[in-house]
Amino acid sequence: MVQTAERRARSLRIGIDYTSAVRQRAGIGRYTRNLIRALAELDADNLYTLFVAGGTRRDRVDKGLAAWPANYRIRSVPISDRWLNILWQRFRLPLPVQWVTGRLDLFHSPDFVLPPVGRIPTIVTVHDLSFLRVPRCFLPEFRQYLETAVARAVRRAQWILADSENTRQDLIELLAVEPERVSVLYPGVEPRFRPVEDVLELERVRVRYGLPRRFILGVGTVQPRKNFDGLIRAFAQLLAARGHDPGFDDVYLVIVGEKGWMYEEVLALPQRLGVGQRVRFTGFVEDADLPALYTLAEVLAFPSWYEGFGLPVLEAMACDTPVVAADNSSLPEVVGEGGLLVDAGDLQAWAEALARLLTDKDLRARLIAAGRKQAWHFTWEESACRLLTIYQAVGTIQIRACT
């Protein structure tokens, strides 16, 4: 009992904004769920408060975890995350998050921006700076909000986490962050991402989403940064050149992901190019179905103009699916030797790369082996271990002033 009391006395009271984990099904929501669940399995000493905006049912917070450990508690506020952002980021309402969480020694936001917290150390995760690198891919109002709010969070934070070395360098170059104040915290691949061998499970997923027998897969929110219009154009070129040849006459393009913004042109493009019968949009796909989806795909095509990391690339490689990705931003860092890299704007090169991966058995076998090895380097356990080390270091900082 005395030993436990002494350990508790040395513990940090850490607040984490868990709103994205509850509100967002993909992207940053998945990132936050996986990272904090791995942290919960690792650390039984520090005291954690998960802050959730918009109120919540306990089952939504607990989803995917049998039970939160005793050193975790949930605190929510019945104000939506949208309105909290308006109050905190636009109107600069100085109402600290401790009003909901109680006393804290450290606060971490895994989603770009920080709430008011008073005089305690803070950590913010910046997943990417795409709104600065490829501003054409954003609605002007959204881009302006991010430019202001993220820059303010980066100035205020004692420590900044980036998903990749590329994003770390972007922070240093574009937002003048001191190099010693930003660390790379790579995401991981969940162990469930492995080739699915259960034939009934594969058929269930195929039927559920109306998947053809052979298809190239694109994964991501349908919005301009993902460059799905370029992928569709490259696919149309492939079919025009070789669509009736053996090995190509039954290949489709399947794009999975929710509608984001500025997506109307992408959805209409297949019909305009005359390939509407060979391109399918499934909408959102449940997390549990992703390993089977990757396993069923012939190729993962990831043509983004910019990525802070590109987790679907690793997930596909872990499922033994050959990958071709754009050669920009963080993607060479993530792909390594495990896939083909192509200029995002070179449609002919994309058509040729897809053709090779569909027909060259030796190339496929080589990339499958290399991709599997590359994916194994990234685990959520390692990410959580590194995060805990950063918490312990940053949590000892004494704050003299609040900016």
Top keywords for this entry?
403 residues; Rossmann fold; seven-stranded parallel beta sheet; 44% helix; 2 domains; alpha/beta; disordered N terminus; six-stranded parallel beta sheet; 18 helices; globular; disordered C terminus
Could you walk me through the main structural features you see in this protein, from its secondary elements to its overall organization?
The protein is an alpha/beta fold. The protein has 2 domains: 2-188 and 380-394, 3-Layer(aba) Sandwich (Rossmann fold); 199-375, Glycogen Phosphorylase B (Rossmann fold). It has 18 helices and 13 strands. It has helices at residues 2-10, 19-23, 28-42, 58-62, 81-90, 98-101, 130-133, 140-156, 165-174, 199-208, 228-242, 264-273, 290-296, 311-318, 331-335, 347-359, 361-375, 380-394; strands at 13-17, 47-53, 72-77, 106-109, 122-126, 159-162, 182-184, 214-219, 251-256, 279-283, 299-302, 323-326, 340-342. The strands form 2 sheets. The protein has a 7-stranded parallel sheet. A 6-stranded parallel sheet has the order 10-9-8-11-12-13, with helices on both faces. Helix 11 runs parallel beside helix 12 and helix 11 (228-242) packs across helix 16. The longest helix is centred in the middle third of the chain and has 17 residues, at 140-156. The model is unreliable at 1-9 and 399-403 (pLDDT under 50).
- Secondary-structure-derived class: alpha/beta
In terms of quaternary structure, the protein is single chain
What's the CATH architecture of the largest domain?
A: 3-Layer(aba) Sandwich
Distance linking N and C termini: 41 Å
Give the name of the CATH superfamily of the largest domain.
Glycogen Phosphorylase B
Q: In order across it, which strands form the biggest sheet? A: 3-2-1-4-5-6-7
Strand count, sense and barrel status of the largest sheet are:
7 strands, parallel
Number of helices: 18
At the first level of CATH, the class of the largest domain is: Alpha Beta
Rg is 22 Å
Average residue-wise pLDDT: 91
Give the overall silhouette: globular
CATH fold name of the largest domain: Rossmann fold
Low-confidence runs (pLDDT<50, min 5 residues)? 1-9, 399-403
Helix % is 40-55%
Strand elements, count: 13
Question: Approximately what portion of the residues adopt beta-strand conformation?
Answer: 15-25%
Number of domains: 2
